[in-house]
Amino acid sequence: MSAAQRRVARVLVDTPLSHLDRPFDYAVPEDLAEGVVPGCRVKVRFAGRLVDGYVLELAADSAHEGSLAPVAKVVSSEPVLTPEVAALARALADRYAGTVADVLRLAIPPRHARAEARPAGDPAPEPPSIGDASWHAYVHGAAFVQALGAGESPRAVLNVLPRHEPERAVAEAVSATVRSGRGAVVCVPDVRDVERWDRVLTESLGPGVHVTLTAADKPPARYRNFLRVSRGEVKVVLGTRGAAYAPVRDLGLVAIWDDGDDLHAEPRAPYPHTREVLLTRAVQADAGVLIAGHARTAEAQSLVDQRWCAEIVADQPSRRREWPIVDVTDGSEHGATPARLPTAVFEAIRGADGPVLVQVPRRGYRTSLACAQCRTPASCPACQGPLVQHRADAPLVCRWCATTVAQWRCGECGGTRLRAPVVGQLRTAEEFAAAFPDRTIVTSGGDGVLGSVEREGAPLVLATPGAEPHVDHGYAVVVLLDTWLMLARDDVRVVEESHRRWFNALALAAFGAKAVAVGDATVLQALVRADPAGLAARELADRAQTHLPPVGRLATVDGPEAVITSLAARTWPAFVDVLGPVPVEPGRDRLILRVPRREGLALARVLKRVAAERSAAKEPPVRIQIDPVAF
Q1: Gap between the Cα atoms of 193 and 245, Å rounded
Q2: Residue 611 CA to chain centroid, in angstroms?
Q3: From CA 380, how far away is CA 364, in angstroms rounded?
Q4: DSSP 3-state of 521
Q5: How far apart are CA 455 and CA 443, in angstroms?
Q6: Could you tell me which residues come within 8 angstroms of residue 390 by beta carbon, excluding any fewer than 6 positions away?
Q7: Pairing relation of β-strands 251-257 and 288-293?
Q8: What gap in Å lies between CA 233 and CA 78, rounded to an integer?
Q9: pLDDT, position 528
């Protein structure tokens, strides 16, 4: 199309208003004609002010009957919005009742002029053929990699065995994909994972074959890597949830590690989950899919049950051999009150010939306090909030208002002595240091998360869930303390999430290591049997009985009490099951809407209409989340 024919630019304006979630036509002035290209950033006048926007396409004319406002400025002629990412943003906005502009804020990093000025480089080298040895431990595993190498698009859910490096297995799948002429996107939960996976991918694929994209990158580096992808220099991207949108050309594989980790849930509107972003991309691009983890989510199990994804697992004898044998104890001795340090735990640690990992459900010191006489929870005299203690010589502090309580007295019985029904990893570290003076105590959690620890000295590592450091050749003993505490959380996913964290901890064990779980043996059988797939199947069956995701679709609408009350009284379609309102905090309520899975897009359209009505009337927005991780 010549410059004379490119008279109209269809611009997606950067506005969060739901009723304006559509492209707008602008005239292209002659002096800007060469600079306005599809995918570039521009500034246009909108509602009386200059705002940013992206050019979706150029056209010769417009359906708008009046005169068109001109494009005010070309911010950059760099085409950063590809048609594929624009289509993805539209699909996700429709899926999550959001706006395309909100999705693009997640997908495209802020511009950095100096990085953009760098000329395009040569294409990345082709990775070597590194085979499929990491997949031989799994039934039909090698066939998955071979299909990718043949240019096919297989889809699979992989349950990874302990010590079988998932980074190397994914690197082999990526190598096969790239050598077939296509690209790949790999998403992991956090920056620590990116650093570890980056080392393995560089070692396996060679330097320069892939780039990393994380929010922790400095803006110039992040934008420079993004441009290398959008310009077609690199076809492999590794990163956290933002990397799911990377404009990889000829996409052949999307992979996600540990999709149950809540870090994959985007905390910004429209709150998409990385797994759903990647699955949407796979459908649009006809790409292969790999969902891998030590555990398995109900969502992944649903894909297996629907035969949309194949199941790749090791046979039962291999699972029993590779996973540590788990001994479950309730902590009691001969019917007595459960001990804080049960004999089974003490003996396992005492007999360990190497590093020991102890997973503690809570970080901090004494995270919950109660009267030693009547067991009434200790509360703040100012606001009635819960009291905590951050270290042995620290005063009591209110968790809500931070008031220091020097002299505490129980309001029920007048007692002055306290007990700690729940302690964190710091208090547990003191107890273990006293019990095992010959070992070096190391803590990991909160602001002090360790990526790895040295094997020398046989350290005893106390870590909160998700903060367990790696150690070469694995831990000799893994202890799961207070499993009942993790299961006591008020969360529909509590069983799935607790087991995910336990399986991830057990996967750090050395071959032939021992494991001890303190809890109820009847609810920890999946750990004993080394059967994450069976647990996922049972979780999915439970969700089916209550019509919760992934069997159904669920939305939450949060807002001021009066607003939510009026929405509850609204006439909803017959397929919508309205639950609530329920209070979430003083002055704010939540409405829960549940529909069959086939009506998910219809529910999103209804909620989008609600948001559009409110934005058009200039009323405060409500927070809409579809299939939230927690509610």
Answers
A1: 18
A2: 26
A3: 19
A4: helix
A5: 15
A6: 364, 365, 397
A7: parallel
A8: 15
A9: 95
Given a cut of 70, the residues of the chain with pLDDT beneath it are: 1-6, 333-340, 363-368, 375, 392-393, 419-427
Residue whose C-alpha is closest to residue 492's, from 298, 595, 630: 630
Q: What is the pLDDT of residue 1?
A: 46
Q: How many CB atoms lie within 10 A of CB 126?
A: 14
Q: Which DSSP symbol is given to 448?
A: B
Residues in the chain: 631
* Contact by Cβ (8 Å): 479, 356: yes
**Cα separation of 337 and 347, whole Å?**
19
What DSSP element (H or E) covers 546?
A: helix 532-546
pLDDT in tens, 72-94: 999 999 999 999 999 999 999 99
Spatial distance between the Cα atoms of 256 and 259, rounded to a whole number of angstroms: 6
**Secondary structure class of 180 (helix, strand, coil):** coil
How far apart are the C-alpha atoms of 596 and 573, rounded to whole Å? 12
Q: Which amino acid type is present at position 370? A: A
Query: 257, 187 in Cβ contact below 8 A?
Result: yes
Beta bridge partner(s), residue 41: 54, 76
**3-class secondary structure for 199-217?**
HHHHHHHCCCCEEEECCCC
**Residue 112 half-sphere exposure, CB side, CA atoms within 13 Å?**
15
Q: Tokens in use for 219?
A: 């803006």
Q: Any alpha helices (H) in 219-273, and if so which ranges?
A: 219-230
Please tell me the distance from the alpha carbon of residue 559 to that of residue 589, in angstroms, as a whole number. 6
Q: In Å, how far are 204, 292, 321, 472, 507 from 132, measured between CA atoms?
A: 12, 16, 22, 23, 21
DSSP-assigned letter for residue 273: B
Distance CA 123, CA 183 (A): 12
What per-residue confidence (pLDDT) applies to 448? Answer: 84
- Neighbouring CB atoms inside 10 A of 187's CB total 27
Classify 387 as helix, strand or coil. Answer: strand
Q: Give the relative orientation of helices 166-179 and 191-205 as an angle to the nearest 10 degrees.
A: 50
Residue type, 45: R
Burial class (CB in 10 A: 0-12, 13-18, 19+), 195: middle
For residue 522, what are the CA distances in angstroms to 151, 362, 499, 500, 519?
Answer: 46, 23, 14, 17, 9
| Strand order through the sheet with 356-359 | 325-329, 509-518, 475-480, 356-359, 460-463, 441-444
The per-residue pLDDT for 445 is: 85
Extract the tokens encoding 75.
Answer: 């911010």
- Strand, coil or helix: what is 196? helix
Name residues whose C-beta falls within 8 Å of residue 542's C-beta, 6 or more positions apart in sequence: none
Count of Cβ atoms closer than 10 Å to residue 111 Cβ: 17
Residue type, 218: K
pTM for this entry = 0.89
Q: Read out DSSP for 454-517?
A: -STT--EEEE-TT-PPB-TT-EEEEEE--HHHHHTS--TTHHHHHHHHHHHHHTTEEEEEEEEE
Which tokens belong to 432? 């273990």
Residue with tokens 């009506």: 599
pLDDT for 420 equals: 66
How far apart, in whole angstroms, are the C-alpha atoms of residue 173 and residue 152? 12
Q: Which two tokens stand for residue 404?
A: 């220091």
